[in-house]
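Hi W.,

Here's what went into the run:
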Amino acid sequence: MGEQQQMQPDLSFVKGVMASGGETVKKCYQCATCSVVCPLSTNDSPFPRKEMLWTQWGLAGRVSGDVDVWLCHQCGDCTKHCPRDARPGDVLAAIRINAIRYYANPKALADVFNSPGGVVGAVIAAAVLVLIVAAVWSQITGNAFPFPLNHEGKVEYHEFLSVIPIDAMVLPIVAWIIYVSYNGVSRFWNDISKGAGLPESFTGTYPKPSIGLLLSKYLGPAVMEILSHSRFKKCGQTAERARGHLLLLWSFIILFAVTNYVFIAEDLFHAALGLISKVTPLPLYHPVKLAANVGGIMLIAGILMVKSMRTQKTEEGVLTSAAPDWVLIWLIFAVGATGIGAEVLRLINIAPIAYPVYILHLATIIVLFLSLPYGKFGHLIYRTTAYVFQRWADDVKAGKAGFGLEKAVGAAH
Amino acid sequence: MSQSILVIGGGFSGLTAAVEAAEMGYQVYLVEKESYLGGRVAQLNKYFPKLCPPTCGLEINFRRVKTNPNITFYTQAEVKSVQGSAGNFNVEVVVNPRYTTPQCTNCKPGEAVASVEAPNEFNFGMDNRKGIYMPHPMSFPNQCVVDPAVAASAEGQKIKDAMPAGHVDLSQKPETIQLNVGAVIVASGWKPYDPANMERLCYGKYPNIVTNMMLERLASPSGPTGGQIVRPSDKTMPKKVGFVQCAGSRDKAYLPYCSYICCMATLKHICYIREQSPDTECYVFYIDIRSPGAKYEKFYAKVKADAKVHFIKGKVAEVKPGSSADSVVLVAEDTIGGGKVEQEVDMAVLATGMQPVGALNPIPGIEYDADGFVKPKEGIVPCGCAKRPVDVVSSAQSATAAALKAIQMIRRAG
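Here's what came out:
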């Protein structure tokens, strides 16, 4: 007699997938054409056929803890060759949205960050928060509110909100994002270890690489692969989509770097430690400012490329796009547009428009990053984790992980 | 008002419907497009349910046709149009010339002098025939045919001169007949779905990819190899044979429906191969094995018990060249065993489905659905594979039912 297991179908998960772009999942009759035609699918663990079945059955835990879901880039080759129009590529995209929700806490925020109304509401809420903090800050500094000008009579955003109130507002949010993301990724790691059949310890935990090994042997190569988009570029039907996405990724890296430069120089060295004098606003010829402007233009160009490619592929029927896809695209566009807008308006010194745009810029950034563990933006952490895990699991299975697990592996399947 | 019945198609369904109606006392016209009666069953090596050769079953029906004065049959004849309503249909039929006379039952003298060869359609082009030929050894009517492409040429004259006087008549012309009938039974049958449509399956690209109907001819004693199942490229017995199920069927891009017979046909083909070659391995790539009914299920169980037959649940979605020019690799996901399977085989058999003739050559005046199956209406009764994909047993049953239905419609109209 084999082990008996009672199925626990989660109907809300099935409905969730069907509502977020995967409404065709039940058309699948398991011929497995998709797994063969997929250019990214592996020989040992082909996808997306098995994910289609698990979703039909409502096995939310099994699907959410399946690393292969994150190795899919929605090329659409499976969808093109599907004999039943079950559109596996779109179903996997919907599964990813729901998997992020599965690991999110609280889950209600996932619904907020995946709907256009929710995101607009969140941006307004964040803008009101910024405005309140600025109003309070003006009482402390004695600066004019809401349109302060500096001693030269120019728009200067530090007159409105200096680093201290911004950090007071943003750092707790960052801490929250890290907390929820870490929590989600840890549970995800455990679930995908189980899903991949890795050996379980007697305490019910799964092996993890040490931090040193994680960074050097697994995260490093995974990040290098992501930076080149070599896997995304293998997509048959939609390889062109990788171009815009790559530009966008690099713009995020540049903007992240310049933001950190300003954070360290201005907030830390100037404001907190008093080691250096005030660095912002940086003059236009400053290398960091140049990088920031290049990054901002790349961000807008990248997101417009992503948007037009998605529109084109949606019209061609290669993929379908759901609300979370457009929400993320428009949110990133809003971050870029308000960023460039705030800078231009500051330079031409139109205070009544510059400050509202600046407020919107701060609000959209807050909402974008707050959506990291909740919305489609979460693919940044989960896909990266999946890329790392795939390398790690291969090593564990091959007996190369190096802590005596070699014998147990392979018996799991 | 007419009391007679037109049966379109002289395959197993049409023959059955014709004799059933005629034996009830009704006048029947049977119109067959090919030069022989018996249809697709005549091409089979053996057929379900008893795995007997086509002679059993067809011969008794031929005798019933021959001895029943109520049946008038035409071969090489096409229904051009059907007009009117139940009780009063006007039908135009064109009968094409055979260029021979009924006493011409031996083509040998003509074949001996003929030089031009053409692909033999009966064997799906796996061998050639001359300008004068017998469609197949058990043809009914047992009368030679002269290829119309040859009849008008010098080759035709050469054949005529070589044949006994009065056997070949090159002056025959197509003849148009007008029939008035009370009901029409459509038994126009099916064609094997064209495997070239499925580009991914590489039919025509590699020599040793054949269809299931080609395998029937290879296995048949009257076939191009005298019944030896050998692969086309080097005429050797394959040691590994892969079966590609649902080749075109259950696919919105090709045939959206299940063709019903291909699973049982493959199980039968495995029996042919395993009888001829005890060490040949068979690999069946399938989505679901459909073996309806207790008898078919038992047959499936029997084939499954053979250690040399391997069932892989997963559709072949890619075909690659093998390690030699003669072999191919079939790629599928093994959805039960896990992982992708790349199986190299000496010969691949595409289990192509049934496409109703209505999808390719519709008859004006008959209504068809989107897939080419005949839509029934008062006075027009489809049966067999013109109605839906079925096996021979179900075709015969639906043909008997169709005869009854046609008679009822005539009596209602009259």
